[in-house]
Amino acid sequence: MMSEEIELIDISHSLPALEIDLKYAGADNITGRAIYRQPRCLLHPEAARALARSVEVAAMAGLTLILYDAYRPRLAQQYLWEACPDPRYVMDIKQGSHHSRGVAVDVALRDRDGGVLDMGSGFDEMIPRSHPFFPGLPVTAQRHRLLLNAIMAAGGFRGISSEWWHFELPNAAGYPLLTDRFGCYPPGNAK
C-alpha cells in the first residue's frame, strides 16, 4: 500500500533539542557513501510526537538524543539491501522498511560532557554484537543500551531484536509505505 496523502513533519525544525547526524547523508554508514541528496529529517506525525516525548525524557536524564535516521526513501532502502542483503538487519525492499513508512528512527545518546555513550558496537555494524541484549558486552554498554531503550519506550517506541539503535512505533507495519519524499544519489555518483 502506497500513500502520498500523509504530511510528514520536518523534525529538524520542530525538535530543536534533538541532535541530528543523518548517517545516510554522509559516508559513515554500511554503504560507505552518501545516499541522501538532501539531509531531511521527516517523520509521520505520530512518530514525531513520540520522538518529542523521548527527547524530553532524555533531557530529564541529562542526555541528548542523537538522530541518525528517520524517514527513508524506498530507493535508499534498496541501496542498503544491496549493501547488506540480510533480513536480520535490513528489510528487503519487497517488504518495505518501517523507515519508509515514516514511523522508525535510528538513535543514540550523548552525555552532558559531549561524549556519545558507548553502546558496545557502532551504528550500522550488522553483527550479533549489535543486537540490543547481546550477552558479551561490558556492563557499561549494557546499561547504556537499557537506558536508550527506556528513553525510547517512554515516547512510545519499541526496539527490534537485531539493532540497538533502531526504534519504531508499535504496529509499524500497519502504516502505509510512502512515496519517496526526497532524492538519493545513484551508486558511484554520491557527492
Describe this structure in words.
It is a single chain. With 191 residues, the protein is α/β, with parallel strands linked by helices. The protein has one domain (2-178): Muramoyl-pentapeptide Carboxypeptidase, domain 2 (2-Layer Sandwich), CATH 3.30.1380.10. Helices cover 25% and strands 15% of the residues. It is built from four helices and nine strands. A five-stranded mixed beta sheet has the order 3-5-6-8-7, covered by helices on one side. Strands 1-9 form a two-stranded parallel sheet. The chain has a two-stranded antiparallel sheet with strand order 2-4. A hairpin with a 6-residue loop joins strand 7 and strand 8. The longest helix is centred in the last third of the chain and has 17 residues, at 139-155. It starts with a strand and ends in a 13-residue tail after the last strand. Belongs to the peptidase M15D family.
Any key phrases for this structure?
five-stranded mixed sheet; globular; 9 strands; single chain; two-stranded parallel sheet; Muramoyl-pentapeptide Carboxypeptidase, domain 2; alpha/beta; 191 residues
Taken from the alpha-carbon principal axes, the silhouette is globular
Sketch the major β-sheet.
5 strands, mixed
Q: Rg, please? A: 16 Å
Q: What is the CATH-assigned architecture?
A: 2-Layer Sandwich
Order of helices and strands: EEHEEHEHEHEEE
Strand sequence of the main sheet, in spatial order? Answer: 3-5-6-8-7
Distance between the termini: 32 Å
What would the CATH topology be?
Muramoyl-pentapeptide Carboxypeptidase, domain 2
Counting DSSP H or I runs of 4 or more residues, the number of helices is: 4
Our estimate of the beta-strand percent is 5-15%
Q: How confident is the prediction overall: mean pLDDT?
A: 94
Report the oligomer.
single chain
Please tell me the total number of domains: 1
Assign a percent range to the helix content.
Answer: 10-25%
Enzyme class: hydrolase
Site (Transition state stabilizer): 72
Active site: 163 (proton donor/acceptor)
EC number: 3.4.13.22
